[in-house]
Design goal:
Length: 389
Amino acid sequence: MSIFKYTATELYDALTTKKDMVVLDVRNKVDFGRFKVESPYPFILQNISYFDFMEIEDECVAKVIKDKPVRIVCAQEGSAKYVAEILEQHGLQDIGYLAGGIKSWGNLLVPVLLNPGESYKLFQFIRPGKASTSYGLQSGDEFMLFDPSRNSDFYLDFAEKNTCRLIKTFETHLQADYIAGSRTLSEKSGATFLANENDFAGARIKYTPLQDEAIYKFSQPGPAVQCIFTPGHTPGSTTFIIDDRYMITGDTVFIHSIGRPDLGGQVEAWSDKLFESLQKIKIYPADMIVLPGHYMSWEEANDRLAFVCTLAETMASNKDIYAIEDKARFLDFIKSNMRKQPDEYAIIRRINANLQQVEDDKAEELDLGKNECAATAYAAKQKSAETSS
């Protein structure tokens, strides 16, 4: 039988090794347009609805590119298997359907070791379905996390496989675009949950407030983690400096953009704070390695498919932003690049503060889809195109 089930990890590996295949997404056009499989390299992606296969089977089969392996994606798995069986009946071979549906792609985390050969290990966990990143820092048998996603079992399994235990989990800010994992990880492992009370003061969470410029250490020799308050994207946005070399910037500094300060509805006040924070960050050494919380596209990845750059490189990429010398002009830039935030962000913030609870299925639905956390010139072009269409 030519039909089989494959995992999100296997799909990522196939895409990043440039396997010659067809990815067939059988969800409706609205869901497909909101969130789809993406890759750092070109690949064949087709969208033919499962319902169309039910109603006009022959016509749909005719549209599927033949003579290549087919990897089918659907919402929850069952529809993809149904379409796979249709394609097999029509003579196609090497047909796989994604285990768990699109949510398994949305929850996928890909670890990349950023500093091979050193006395400690710094990992970037790339979440392709969200265009977001989290980070892990291991020294000896101890492990720290920064901005983990809700896929808590992945991080705990990763720590176990690397013979270490989670001792601290940090949040750079109160996330709005995805459901954060620190609270759950703290409850499951006993790790200390650290967060900025300027974001979390009203949260119903047991956490340890971060202190500006404080140093956080392992219980044994290892790299120091310095906390730097960098408000603007949110009032409690925080940057972490690791070993005086790496800068985990959350949603404050991205490779090809900066964080947007309008998500809380206080554009002018938060814009001023973000401007001040960028001035603070600008004075760090030019060779400081920036580790962002999100990326805009795979074009930002390096040759190891990791999202890192020097502070000098991100400032050069965003020279028009960093060249702004006063708060008024900076506010003008922010206002010209604003767009409507997704409706679900307000709910996600409440979930992350433990002020609202939802069932797992609803949490999955809220958590899927790419982020909208950057202030970029692209947003202005997009808004202009929408207005003229």
